[in-house]
Amino acid sequence: MLKKNHCPICQSSSLSDVLKRSSIPVYQNVLINNFEAARQIPRGDLEILECKECGFVYNSVFDTNKVVYGSDYENTQSYSTYFNSYLDELVETLVTQKGVSNLNVVEVGCGKGGFLKKIVEAGNNYGYGFDPSYIGPEVDCGGKLRFEKKLYNEESASFKADVVLCRHVIEHISEPVILLKSIRKALVHSPQARVFFETPCVDWIFENKVMFDFFYEHCSYFNEKSISKAFEFAGFEVVSIDRIFNGQYMWLEARPVEDNRELKNLSYTKYVDPRGLGFSKNEFEWKRKALEQVSIYSLGGKVALWGAGAKGVTFLNLIDPGVEYIDCVIDVNPNKVGNYIPGTGHEIIGIESLDNREFSTIIITNSNYLDEIKKIVQQKILNINLVDIETWSAQQE
Known about the structure:
Layout: E1 15-25, H1 35-39, E2 43-51, E3 57-59, H2 81-97, E4 104-108, H3 114-123, E5 126-130, E6 139-140, E7 145-148, E8 163-167, H4 176-186, E9 194-200, H5 202-208, E10 220-221, H6 224-233, E11 236-244, E12 249-256, H7 279-299, E13 302-306, H8 310-319, E14 328-330, E15 347-349, H9 354-357, E16 359-364, H10 370-379, E17 385-388, H11 389-395
Parallel strand pairs: 4-5, 4-8, 5-7, 8-9, 13-14, 13-16, 14-15, 16-17
Antiparallel strand pairs: 1-2, 2-3, 3-10, 6-7, 9-12, 11-12
Helix pairs in contact: 2-3
């Protein structure tokens, strides 16, 4: 794979190194139903660079051909009561504060369609979901919700869109401006459309030194400056950007403009102080201390990890690739139960198995879910040490 030595957003060659990892799993969220297949998953490299001009962070050796999303891709998070409540709050904000009701709503990369269905039902909207990997009925909600198993681009201009939603897609795209330009072209007959995007915030990763939030599926990482620049290059005006999900995500609202001359307040700054400097050094020390801590926990009894999503998969591949210290992974998503972690082969179990496994320690990879997990463990009257890895990581500095 030819290394990209120019920023995909602003084309600057003024770049700084963030981190390098070799031979890591290219998938974090595919369903793999046997140990050997999980161990033999295709692999790729990370060479994360940060643009000093616009602040964009990207995997400079990402190979698009290695990552193809199909029916075995499963990243549904709404089985978590916390995350489902978060989605409900997002829907409530869109419907009541942003007036997304009685409108035509398009979702780009709709996944299984759960979020779009909530929007349709809550706001009496008409919904159109676009996703090549969508599986399910083509029509739902009495005809008010329709799905297209294809990309949303200029060929979709016949769909009148009052609102375009796109959640957790752009970070998977190696050329984000091209994606945004294709959406802009699709809105040629919908000049008043409002566009809402949700994506992880790379500043949160740097601020909290979250080593396991860099992985292969995500090739593009944004802060407020870089995502504003990407939208402006694609023919949008950014209306607002908010930090949500306890700072982990950004929520952006934009609108199409006729041409870039309409953009009065470009977010471009001549120089961005690199946030990722020293990240590799921090990672080396973090891995050493994390491995030491996990090995101590394992001496006291069985250790499990909670969360078979990208954070959990990355943590395990960094810290326990040989399945030496951590017994298995717990997840509330029933579709993941009985499968195995890509790269390491750790077994994924459901919460109904907690009573039988006799865990002494459970490691939690995302603080947002701590209260939910505590409640589940308390309801089962289990004496288990819960370790919040984000807090634990910060305490190790």
